[in-house]
Design a protein that fits this description.
The complex is a heterodimer. By secondary structure, chain A is mainly α. Chain A is built from 13 helices and no strands. Chain B is an alpha/beta fold. Chain B folds into three domains: about 130 residues, Fumarate Reductase Iron-sulfur Protein, Chain B, domain 2, CATH 1.10.1060; about 150 residues, Rossmann fold (3-Layer(aba) Sandwich), CATH 3.40.50; about 110 residues, Rossmann fold (3-Layer(aba) Sandwich). In chain B, helix 14 links the parallel strand 3 and strand 4. The chains are: A mainly alpha, B alpha/beta.
């Protein structure tokens, strides 16, 4: 991969992706805030639980998905819990966090299982869309987002699994500080791409992983991924 | 489609983009969990009749004109511009939905699909493609609101005749004043429908309870809301609200009509008086001992149909059941019931349209529910549900009797 291109993906594009994510989310919330407030309520009865506890219950445990399709609910929960662990794991790539190390473990969190669960569940979501009636209601955005996410997780998992479990693990093993130096330099707005990174044996895989992650982050505020934040607003109105 | 028309339709969408509409339009993942929650889809399993299928028609034009991706990469979100076919799809989507919100309840993200279809209805009005029946009925109600003084004398004459019916029901010595009108400071302003039955039985109940009440000059039903015309809908609702304010009543009581109850109760913002359904008032009178009804008068197996606007969208579940259980020896629940209950298929003004074959098909889940309950009588408290349940009973040769709760109570008062 061209040096310029990989540099762009690992440094400027990361900034572009996070800026798009943050300002995109701010813009989306601002658009809603400045829109006219509705008259009346959108309540559904009975309103089980308090406004806050009920809202958290509805949005995070999706009881109606459980009521409708228990198997699908299980996969949804598995996916989202794994996603949460993925987030925690990436935090540890930036710095030490004691609350994540309550159960001492080697970085990255989950020993590879998190990525495998995410890959399998993402593939399930993808192939589910090829069957009736889901195929009929799917639009290109649905497939593209799942593909971007799948490739992001795939390359991320290759990085982790190869280092941890392959016969070449010792060769591929990366000192965590190599990642931390790069990510912390980004965070402190003093970006550095040292030879420790560019000379990694799996450098291309890292670049591809970051490329798909960047695309995913940039799409987040402007695609259906926004459901992860807007669902709280919708459930609140259902209980108001 | 002409550019001017497209611009006009775009403005229609723009006006509907309030806070909830913005997030409802964007947060659907098309997971498909709502797919079979719609009674219409159960009866006619086509994508066009699934909640997500309906909402997607609106989303396609929304994306086209309000999303940069829809403008530059329409394939990304299946964005579509206005044309004849799309307007027809919007009509199919909007007027096959009863607004029961069963899909809203099941949506894991809490999306209010009928709320989104409010855009479709408003677009159809602007395009001149809204159902003529509903538009005409809404116009009639608006006209009556504008020139109510012209209608008053004729209405009072009709009410005089109805007072005699009430007299027979409660065995009063005189019919005078049994249906009071324009009574300032009354406790209750009762809002009926155009049918005599919608006034006679509540009047009998109010008189038996010795209530200080007065009758509204207007009908509770809101055809402006059914048509999806926000302006007319608000005007029609405000006729009653202004009448109640002018009379200084403490409470308005809405006849057996689910939507007519939901609009002032939940969709008009805070009001200076209480809004109740006639079902709640009957229940209150029984609990307070103000009226007594004959126990066990209904001997045949009877079941209760939860009108969606009273139940799922209004929270009235227990009161009608308790009332019915006093009168019925063999009360049976349908399954599912309460918030999970299947819509009968008559709401949203659909019973006013020429669509009987469609409504019989979409009433299939309700038909199956009634059959499984083994009941030979279905009681409900919504005029639309009553009409639709009768259509289902006839359409499937079920031989099930459909009764109104207020009528049952009114006919079985112990005076």
């Amino acid at each position: 991969m061209s040096g310029y291109l990989s540099y762009f993906i690992l440094i400027p594009m990361v900034y572009i992706a996070f800026a798009t994510l943050i300002f995109g989310l701010i813009y989306r919330f601002y658009s809603i805030w400045k829109a006219p407030a509705p008259v009346g309520t959108g309540a559904i009865f009975p309103k089980k639980g308090s406004k806050v506890s009920g809202l958290i219950y509805d949005a995070m445990l999706v009881p109606m998905a459980y009521a409708k399709q228990k198997g699908f609910w299980f996969i949804i929960m598995l996916f989202h819990i794994a996603f949460f662990f993925l987030f925690l794991g990436h935090l540890e790539l930036v710095a030490d966090f004691k609350f994540i190390q309550i159960i001492p473990h080697r970085i990255f969190l989950g020993g590879g299982l998190v990525g495998i669960i995410l890959m399998l569940t993402t593939l399930y979501f993808l192939f589910r869309r090829f069957g009736t009636p889901y195929r009929e209601i799917s639009i290109p955005e649905d497939f593209i987002i799942l593909l971007v996410l799948f490739f992001c997780i795939l390359f991320g998992s290759i990085l982790h699994l190869a280092e941890r479990y392959s016969d070449w693990g010792a060769v591929l093993r990366v000192d965590i500080n190599v990642y931390r130096n790069w990510l912390q330099s980004l965070l402190l707005f003093k970006p550095q791409l040292s030879y420790n990174i560019t000379e990694l044996s799996h450098y291309t895989i890292l670049v591809l992983h970051v490329l798909f992650a960047n695309i995913f982050l940039m799409m987040f505020p402007f695609s259906k991924m926004i459901h992860s934040v807007f669902t709280f607003l919708a459930h609140y109105r259902k209980r108001n | 489609m002409e550019r001017e028309k497209v611009l006009e339709l775009k403005q229609v969408i723009g006006k509907k983009l309030n806070r909830p509409m913005l997030y409802y339009l964007d947060l659907c993942t098309r997971c498909g969990l709502c797919y079979d929650t719609c009674h219409v889809y159960q009866g006619i399993p086509k994508k066009e009749y699934s909640p997500v299928g309906r909402a997607e028609v609106v989303r396609r034009v929304f994306r086209k004109y309000f999303k940069p991706a829809g403008k530059f990469f329409p394939w990304w979100g299946d964005a579509h511009e206005f044309d004849e076919n799309l307007m027809e799809e919007l009509r199919e989507a909007a007027f096959s939905c009863t607004g029961c919100r069963r899909c809203t309840m099941f949506c894991p993200f809490g999306i209010d699909m009928p709320y989104i279809l409010g855009i479709a209805k408003e677009l159809l009005i602007a395009y001149g493609n809204a159902p003529e029946e509903l538009v005409m009925l809404a116009d009639g109600a608006v006209e009556k609101g504008k020139s109510i003084d012209m209608f008053k004398e004729g209405f009072r004459g009709v009410i005089k005749d109805l007072e005699q019916e009430v007299q027979k029901l409660i065995g009063a010595s005189s019919s005078d004043g049994l249906i009071p009108m324009e009574k300032h400071g009354a406790n209750i302003l009762f809002v009926g429908l155009s049918g005599a039955h919608s006034i006679i039985y509540p009047a009998a109940i109010f008189n038996a309870a010795k209530e200080d009440w007065t009758l509204s000059y207007f009908e509770a039903v809101n055809f402006g809301y059914f048509a999806g015309d926000t302006e007319k809908s608000n005007f029609i609702a405000n006729r009653i609200i202004n009448e109640a304010k002018a009379l200084g009543v403490k409470e308005i009581v809405i006849v057996e009509c689910g939507t007519a109850y939901r609009i002032p109760k939940f969709l008009m913002g805070p009001l200076p008086f209480k809004v109740s359904s006639i079902v709640e008032v009957i229940y209150r009178y029984i609990k307070e001992g103000r009226i007594k009804i004959k126990q066990g008068i209904v001997s045949e197996p009877v079941t209760w149909h939860d009108p969606c606007q009273l139940g799922r969208n209004g929270g009235i579940y227990e009161q009608p059941r308790e009332i019915l259980q006093i009168m019925a020896n063999d009360f049976r629940e349908m399954n599912p019931n309460c918030e999970y209950n299947w819509c009968c298929g008559g709401g949203g003004g659909l019973v006013a349209l020429d669509n009987e074959e469609f409504r019989i098909k979409s009433g299939k889940p309700k038909k199956e529910q009634i059959e499984k309950s083994g009941a030979s009588m279905v009681v409900t408290a919504c005029e639309n549900c009553h009409l639709q349940l009768s259509t289902i009973s006839q359409g499937y040769n079920m031989g099930v009797k459909v009764e109104s709760l207020t009528k049952l109570v009114g006919e079985n008062l112990i005076i």
